[in-house]
Amino acid sequence: MIIAIDGPSGAGKSTLGRMLAHEVGLLYIDTGAMYRAVALAVIEQGISLTDQRAVTGVAKHARVDLAGDPNSLQVKLNGRDITVAIRTAEIGRAASVISTIPEVRRELVYHQREMGTRGSVVLDGRDIGTVVFPDADIKFFLTATPEQRAHRRYDEDRARTNDVSFEATFADINARDERDSTRADSPLAIAEDAVVIDSTELSIEEVFERMVAVVRERQMKEVS
Ligand code: DC
């Protein structure tokens, strides 16, 4: 079974993806972490984010591994643990920039498809239900207002550091929405057959319950 979860930045995709994978007993693949890993490698090598050829070279040679169970997913770059290093706002922005390069996408989509054929998986990203697995068994599109998503991201960041402001987080969310949904290659879009959940007025638990209900319903249909 393949479950696709797409949506804008800060919609709760990775939290819910992990919870759902754990509940249903599937592997969890955070495709955003793969773009973030390439972005980190690009920055560390002193390459400009807009140097398409050089960035593509990094994407081709970087070995990005996702290991562990959904609740303690480890991200590795050429064998080095980068789980924490890729969670900064700077890397998020850089990932959004390099993800506009078609050759970078081609490289990472190839790996995502390969991982999806190894077993039943939950993948979260921007283009999973539209491009990576257009035949996914279940597609979710999670969203919330930019204000709400910025509030959630701000609260998360505040738990780690004092060096954040709501205004900067809100501006970042808006810039990422704009870039991720207007790029020419595989922009963020709602798949025709996606179950759309707007979580602006919902708690994580309420969204989770809805998602589990959809999965159980599909599983029942397959059995009968
Ligand atoms: O989900 P995230 O914030 O970790 O993703 C970081 C960036 O990576 C996001 O702004 C756009 C890009 N991305 C993408 O283009 N396609 C995906 N399937 C996942 C992420």
Description:
The chain has helices at 13-24, 31-44, 52-61, 89-98, 102-116, 128-132, 146-160, 166-182, 204-223; strands at 2-6, 27-30, 64-67, 74-77, 80-81, 121-125, 138-143, 195-198. The model has no long low-confidence stretch (mean pLDDT 95). Strand 4 and strand 5 (80-81) form a beta hairpin. Helices cover 53% and strands 15% of the residues. The strands form two sheets. A five-stranded parallel beta sheet has the order 2-6-1-7-8, sandwiched between helices. It has a three-stranded antiparallel beta sheet with strand order 3-4-5, with helices on one face. The chain has a single domain, classed as 3-Layer(aba) Sandwich (Rossmann fold), CATH 3.40.50.300. The radius of gyration is 17 Å and the shape is globular. The two termini are 16 Å apart. The chain has 224 residues and is of the alpha/beta class. The site of 2'-deoxycytidine-5'-monophosphate (DC) has 14 residues, from helix 2, helix 4 and helix 8.
